[in-house]
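Batch job 17 of 40 flagged for manual review because the log was empty.
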Amino acid sequence: MKRLEPSDIESLLRGNAGGKLIWFAGIGGCGMSGLAHLLLDLGFRVAGSDVEESGFVRGLRERDVEVVLGHNAEALRRNRPALVVYSPALRKDNPELQEALQSEIPIVCRAFLLAALSKCQKTLCIAGMHGKTTVASMLAYAMEQLDPDAGFAVGGMVRQLAVHARFSGKAGKAFQAGLPASGPVFAIEADESDGALSVFDPHDAILLNVDDDHLDYFASFENVCRQFSEFAARAKGRVIYSSDDTNLVSMMASQPGGISCGFNPLSDYRIESPEVGGRFELWKQDKRLGVFRTNLPGEKNINNTAMAAVWLIENGHAPARVSLVLRQFAGVRRRQERIYDDGSISVYDDYAHHPAEIMATIRAYQEKRPGRLITVFQPHRFSRTQQLMESFVTCFRQTDQLWLTEIYAAGEQEIEGVTGHSLARAIERAGQAVSYHSSPDQLRKALGEVVKQGDLVLFLGAGNLTHQSRLFGQELEERHAHSMDLLEHSLIEALNPEARIVRNEPMARKTTLRVGGPADLFVEPATENDLRTIILQCGEFKVPFFILGRGSNLLVRDGGFRGVVVHLKRGEFDRVQIDGDHVTCGAGVRLQLVAAKTREAGIEGFEWLEGIPGSIGGALRMNAGAMGSATFDRLRTLRVMNHDGEIRELSRRDVDARYRSCPMLKDHIALSATFVGSPCESAKIVERLRSYSEKRKASQPRESSAGCLFKNPPNIPAGKLVDEMGLKGVQFGNARVSDVHGNFIVNLGGASSQDVLNLIQYIKDLASEQKEIDLQSEVQVIGVDHVLSMHREMEEDCEREVSR
C-alpha cells in the first residue's frame, strides 16, 4: 500500500485539479466531509462511501457528490480515483483499502491530507489537548465576518456557519495556478492524538494547553511535550500560547518570539476583571484594549475567547470590532450544548472526557445551576481510564450527584480489571457517592425517575452517551408536553366559552419587537374568574405563567415560554368606562384607545398615550411615561389579583410607584384602574395629540421595536448616551441600534432574541467602560434560550461522529 507524506500529496494535488477524482472511504464523518468540501472548493471531483446516510452525507449530495452506502471494492474499481482518503476509524481489512492496495492507488490518512492542504494557504493551526474545536470554530465564525477570503476547517458543527470547512474562491484560483502559500488565512485544528501534529508546518499557531492524554500513543508525557515543542518551533509567524499552562510557559521559554495570553499577570496579553457572566477586560501590557464577552460558560471559555481575540488583534483587526464579533459566537455542538430547557430542568451535553476537561466543565456549570448539578459520565477508552485512574477518582468532587456507565471502547481491546464499574468503586472508596449502571439505557431511565425541578443535568464523554442525552431531553419534553395536555384539557372545561386557548403560539406575533419562540399554552381569559382559575390551576400543575399586555417593552427568548402566557385582551379586560372626569379601564385596554376615548369625551391628561403600543396593565406594571407624564400621575384606584386569586382594590396612596416600575405588580396582576382627567376643549386635545404624534414620528423609528430600551441614567438621556458613544447603526445579526433614536433597537426582519440580547449587553458594556454608567434595561426578558431540535438527523450525526 503506497503511503504518502504531505509533500507527496501536495505534488499530486497540484495541476489540473478539475480532472482528478478523490475517493473518501468513510466520507460521512465531520472531519472527512470537511475535507471533501475543501477539495470541492479547490475544483476537484469528489466521491466516497459510508455505512449509512447522515446530515453530512446529505450536505455533500447537495454539491453533486456521489456517495455509495456501504463499503465495497466494486465502487472503487468503477471510479478509478487518483487518491483514496481514509478515516483512522476504518478497519485495516476494509475492502476499499484492500482494493486500493491491489490497484496501487495512493492512499492517505485524513490528517495527512489536511496537512497537505494547509500548505496551500497561510495556515493558522490551533493545537491543544482541550478547547481547540471551540477556539477554531470561534475564529472561523469571526473570520467569516472580518475576512471573507479566509478559509477554515473545524472538527465540530457550528450552527452559525453554513459549512464547517471551506476555501474561498480566491484560494481556489491560487491553488490551481500553483502559487505558493500566501494571502488568505486558513484556520484549522491540528490534532495531536496519533502523532499527526508532526506533519503540520503552520505559519501561525495557537497553543492552548498540553496534558497527559493519548498516552497509548505517546507512552509518556515527555513525548507529548516534545511533539508540541517541535510543532511550535516549525511555525514561521506568531505563536500565541496560554501563560496559564506551566508546561507551555516552560516550553516557550526556549523559543523566542512567542506571545503569551492568560490570567497570569506577566502575560503579554492579560485577562483582568473576569465575571461569571463571561465578561472580561483584555490588556496589552499597560494598555486596556477593551471589554470582551463570551456567551460560553466558565473560566476556560474566557481564556479561549481571549486567545482568539489576541490572534485577531495581532493580525490587524481593531479590538472593538473583535469584541463585537466574538460576543456573538454561540458555540459548537457537543461543546457545552444545551439539549433541553423548560425553565426548571436543563440538560447539557459536552465532549469532555479527560479529567482536566471534566473539572473545568463542572466548574463552569456550578455558576449556572439553580439547584442540583447532576453529572453523567461515560469513560472513553480503556487505556485512558487505566492511565488516568487516579485523576478520574477526584475530578468529579464539585458535582452534587455522579452517575457512571460502562467504558466506551472506541475500537480498543478490553483491559482486564479496567471497567466503568471498577472506576465507580474507586470513586466510592475515595468518599464520593456514585450511581453506576452498566447500560446507558438503564442509566437514562433511572435518572428520569429522580430528576426534579431546579436540576441541571450534564452529560459528559466522547462516546455515544451523547445519544442518551438527546433521548433524555426528548423524554423530559414528552413529560412536559403531557403536563401541558392535562392543564389544557382542564382549562377548556373550566373557562368561559368566550375564552381562547392555543397551543404553541409564536410569541413573535404577540410582541412589538417581533421576536421570540412559542408559548406552550396561550390563553385569553374573558372574565376575572377565568383569570383566577388559570392562576390556581397553573399552581396545581406546577406550571409557570406570565401575564401579557400588548407585547411592548417585552423580549421573549428564542426558546419561547415553557408554560402559560395569559393575554388580557378580551371580555372584561378590554372595557373603557367614562363617568364625568373618571376613566375606568380594564388591564387589556390599548393605550391608544384610551387616548381616543378621552378625546371624544373632552377629557385631557391622556394625550401622551397616543402612539404608545401598549396596554393599561403593562403601563401600570412599568409606570410607563412619555412627554413629561407617567401612568400613575392620574391614578385614583387600582384593582389587583394576587397569585392566590384574591382581589383587592387600592387607592393611589396605597401603591408604591417608582420611575419605570411598580414593585407591587411583580407579584400581583392589575385587573383594572380608574384615572382622573380634566375637562378640556376638544380642539385643544386634538392639537396636543397632533403635536405628540408628529414628535414621535420625527424622533422614533418605524421598524419593529420594543420601545425605549434603557432607563434614563442620571444627568443624561439614554438615547443621547448611546449616540455619544457612536453606537447608532451598530448591528448584531438583524437587530440594529436605530439611526433615528439611540434608545431603540429595531428588528430589520428575521432578528433573533439572542441578537437583541447580545446588542443590549454590548451597549451596557460600552457604557460601563467608556462612561462609567450602569445602564438599566426597561425591557422585560422572559423565556428560555434556544434549544436545538432533537430530530433524527442530529442523532445519526452524533452516533457517527463518536466512532471517528
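Reviewer: the log was empty due to a logging misconfiguration, but the result itself is present. The chain has five domains: 6-113, 120-326, 337-476, 575-698, 703-782. Unflagging and moving on to job 18.
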